[in-house]
Structures are given as structure tokens and as C-alpha cells.
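Lab manual, section 2.4: Encoding a predicted structure.

Procedure: take the sequence of the chain (359 residues), apply the prediction step described in section 2.3, and record the output as C-alpha cells. A sample record is shown.
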Amino acid sequence: MIHIRLKQQLAAFTLDLDLTLPARGVSAIVGPSGSGKTTLLRCIAGLERAEQAFIEVNGHCWQDSQRGLWLAPHKRALGYVFQEASLFDHLNVQANLNYGRHRSAEPASDQQATQIIELLGIAQLLQRSTSGLSGGERQRVGIARALLANPRLLLLDEPLTALDPQRKADILPYLERLHAELDMPLLYVSHSPDEVARLADHLVLLDNGTLRASGPLQTLLPRLDLPMAHSDDARSVLHGQVSACDDRYQLLELTLDGSPLQLRLPHSALPLGQRVRVAVQARDVSLALEKPQHSSVLNQLPAHIEAIEPGSHPAQALVRLALGDNVLLARLTRYSVDQLQLQPGLPVWVQIKAVALFD
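Recorded output:
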């Protein structure tokens, strides 16, 4: 586990946090600009020395101000990836990677290095000059360099912000592979709901230096008391596994975790039993009191209403729904809520107009 308690006075507020994060997977750190996200990462890395702090990563204490313990940044077994890869342009890719290995007291083994290079798809770049790399290639090399130091923790501070949409789309699958195959915690700062939905297991929401919420992504995204549910691109994330493939119509069938309910979506065939996650935008969910007949919408599922609250616009309402053990968010007009007489506890039929699969 990762335990972080720190108090640091900043220009506009005091960063005051008490966090416990999982020892594996991606913990996304989100919040408005200036809420303390980057400062949190810099304090963990030792680039800023918090006035009061206790930082422990998987049993290794890096700072304990009460005991006067302070581990210098170069002695902390971590990798740090910034918005810009900051490669050494006088060295080729291989030499940049070697630098990452040589700076560590316990560098990655040759076998681990081969795995990292393969995971990030940079084998064909090793002899190239870094000055000729695209933005996405530079970031992949930067991530590989950080991983070759064999860190116990990887910090990524908005690593895709400087990339155009195509380069982001190119690098996200590599980040998903890291998430799936590396047995290491990643702390990922991002302003992008899409990146968070695709990558995160755990969510940390900061606001003006304080911890607004921390918990599993699936639990926090549809919470009506948190700002993510009220954003224009509010969404829910569901997990399941591939249960069938329809080659004729190029449709996948997914069985949701903790439920016999199934989703269908257009997609090429995937192996049966493969674990997947899907995102559903709140604006793509509609409700009916009875099962719709003769509809073009592929997914019609029984659900129960858990809660209803006003949306961010006076004409809108947000509806939180239970689908077995899963939670789904719907954005409706207040007119529809009143006309259907929707209320908590009412059984309804959910129609999902679009599903995004992250495989």
C-alpha cells in the first residue's frame, strides 16, 4: 500500500492530505487546475520537501517529518514522467534508456528491459536520434527510461497533455498495456476524463488542496455529490468479460461483473473470457417504464433507480441507476423525469445508445 500524509503551505492554500492508495494499478489524481495535483507528486518524489509529511511506499518509508527522516530524491525508487519527455537529444534512444538503467542502484534486468521495450513498442527506435522522434514516440521512450530504473512507483504528470489527439490515440494503448502487465503502482495526474476512464482503477479528487474523495473509479464516477457526474462528459465505467461474438454482424456480447446482464456492441471478435472495461456516457442513456418494443437500440436492460438530483443545467436531471452490482448514470430532462414520475426505488428499463470499449 501507499500511505501519504502531508501538509504543505502553498501561495493560495495549504495542501493538506491523508491518503491510502492501492499497491497495484493506476490511481488517477484529478481536480481543477491549481488544486495541488503536481505539488502532491513533487512531494512524493522529494522534489519539494513538505513541512509535515509521512510517505511510505510498500513498506519503504521515504519521509517521516516526526522522526526527522528524509530520503533524497535520487534515493527514492521511483520513476517520474513529465508533460515533456526531456530526453537527451545528443544521445540516441538506446543511450537515453541506458541512462535510466545506470542511475538506479537496482536497475531492471536484461529480461525486464526487453519486456519494457516490447511493451512500449520502441524496439525499432533504439538506434534513432531522439531529435527526430514524434511527440508520442518521445513520451514512450521517456516512460521506458523511467521504468528501466526499476522503480517501486511510477509518477506520470499529465504525460499526454502536449500531444495532439492522434498522438494521444497512438500512445494510450501502450499505457493500457503497462497497466495490465506491470506489477507496480502508477500515480497518474490528468485533466482528461477519457484517459481516466480508460486507465484508472482508483480515483483521487483534489479541490483547493484538500481531499474531496478517494476510492474505486466505478464507485466515484457516478456519485451525484461529486463534480464528475455534473460535467458535460459525465460517464460510468463498467467491467465484464467477453461471453460471445457474432461474426455475421460484428457484435460482441459482454457479461457484466456481478450480474447476469449482458451488453452488445459493434466490435471485431475478441477471445471468449477476455476481461474488458466499457464506458457509457450519461447523455447516451434513456429510460422507459416498460421494455421498449421494435427499437434500434441494441442494449435494453432492467434497472432500479437509486437517486435523482438536479443536473448542472436547470432543464436537466441526473439519475443514478443500479444494474445488478453495477451503477450507471443517466442525464435526462426534468420534463421526462416528471412525465414518467421517476423516483428512487422505481424499476425501469435502461436504453444505452452507445458503448465505448477499452480493450
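Check your result against the sample. The mean pLDDT is 91.
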